What we know:
The complex is a heterodimer.
Chain A lengths: L1 H24 L6 H6 L8 H11 L5 H13 L5 E2 L4 E2 H36 L4 H15 L2 H15 L15 H27 L2 H8 L4 H39 L4 H10 L3 H29 L8
Antiparallel strand pairs in A: 1-2
Helix pairs in contact in A: 1-12, 5-6, 5-8, 5-10, 5-12, 6-8, 7-8, 7-10, 8-10, 9-10, 10-11, 10-12, 11-12
Chain B lengths: L4 H15 L16 H7 L1 H18 L1 H4 L18 E2 L5 E2 L10 H37 L1 H15 L3 H12 L3 H11 L1 H15 L3 H8 L4 H9 L4 H24 L11 H9 L10 H25 L8
Helix pairs in contact in B: 3-5, 3-14, 5-6, 5-8, 5-9, 5-12, 5-14, 7-8, 9-12, 10-11, 12-13, 12-14, 13-14
Amino acid sequence: MRYVIRRLLQSLIVVFGVSVVVFGMLFMTGDPTEVILGEAADHMNVEQIQEFRVKMGFDRPWYVQYASFVGRALQGDFGYSFIRHQPAYEVITDKLPATIKLASFAFVLSLLVSIPLGVVSAIRPHKPIDRIATMLALVGQSIPSFWLGILLIIFFGVHLKWLPISGSGTWQHIIMPGVTLAAFPIARNMRLTRSSMLDFMQRDFVRTARAKGISESRVVYAHVLRNSLLPIVTAIGLELGFLLGGSVIIETIFGWPGVGREIVLAIGSKDFYVVQAGVIMLALIFAAVNLLVDLAYSVIDPRIRYGS
Amino acid sequence: MTLLDPLEKENQAVMARHEGPAAPPPTVEPPQRSQFLPRLVRSKAAMICLFVLLLVLVAAVAAPWVAPNDPSTIKLIQRLKPPGYTTSAGITHWLGTDSLGRDVLSRMIFGARVSLAVGLSAVVISGTVGLLVGLLSGYFGGLVDDVFMRICDIQLSFPTTLLALTIMAVLGGGLDKLILVLGLTGWVQYGRIVRSQVLSIKTEEFVLAARATGERQWRILFQHILPNIWSPVIVIASFTVASNIVAEASLSFLGVGVPPSVPSWGTMLADGRQYIGVADWLTIPAGLAISLTVLSINILGDWLRDYLDPRLKNIV
């Protein structure tokens, strides 16, 4: 319980860090007015720009602006989108369910395929099934997701006309973006499961277990797989970030109405408050998932005592 | 030799461990350097991949001489011509032309420059930072671990692509910015996995023995622990060079990577996306180039892992 409380406090530090980074993004070029106005500044004179600066509060010291940013963010106020004509927070929360749906679909798909494939590959090294699985994983990991998406669109959308190429109306709409998003995690987790299991199969405790006459399936699942899970869980935790971030590209290609596509559209239209709201939202969700992954470490590998 | 000989030897080893300096770590040294080339030559897959990468490297270095045309010359009258199209002047566009009439093959050759520059430069930055952070964090634990892991967590709270996309959107495109952003956003994966390996290895007997005999911390860290975590580091490095190439292409594809005027595999895919089903030669060659390069790097990374890790060399 102490560990959980300690970890929750650490998560608060993460939330603080996220807020600093997202707030700091506006200051990367030196002048937030320049970022917010974008090309519109070219059509304004110096007085108008200064008036906008004062109106937005950018003339105040940075720490005052940060306090104001946090105060407003805590109330769900991330500024107003002049492009969408609605608060930036609402623009993002409207799109959030679609992103979570797509990422969850891809996450479950990747786990269902990668871990069994990695285990089968590891217990039959050098056999045809291992070679095929390894080659598929290598190819899957090497194909950029957006190119795979384009290939799927060309093949299943344009030529065969089996699946819709854009949108999110029916269950068929999620198949192509979901598979595209899951392809890389499947390949990476499969390789990681395989290499981690092969590594542990050489350890002395596994040899001892075999020498004691324990059945092969128990050796594989209770001894090898359980110990191999630590690096795999680490990777799976990292994978969620990939799925949320990767959805930016996949959503753009397939016209999936999620947060990622909204962020790309907002970047294109210099709607920076929406970008900020989208980034902070995805970051906070991911921080929460990361906390759960860390808690899972201590359950899987009791040797690691974070609290001590 | 009697039945007790092995026991006697083990006793001697234990005594030596207690009385003398720490026993050397059970790391089996990588094969002699002289075996590197013969083994590489024996592996067909590694040789094919090396050949592909050399080809990409030559294309990148010698692009101005090997490219059949200027990649930036716009000829609207020759736009969207299919592969093998020959102009009235007798110039053949082996991979066709794009929406502005530019030669696709020449743009692909020049695109190799951007991919390799980004892939290799960014991995040096992210690898160095991640390895150091992971080693120190895992070994020393306590406050050092807390600080590093919180920085890690903060950065991990931003999906890498999203973070890079946002920073690039604010800073504006450019090759140097792209390398720096990918380098500084990619170290976390190293840090976390190296740390988890160190956490396991630092409780192994050879490390405890080294500690017990009073060896210096840096020596334990770099001479005892580091050699035992090369395998995952190499695997991650191969992934990272490859993923950097993909990230560059992704960001350029989204319009925030290299400027559109610079030929890059990502910008070629972005241009070609608008002509799916009409001019597939705009997307397929560029995508193939990325995939083959990334596949070759991954296979070579695997081969290197097998070469360096004696525990896996007979199996993998």
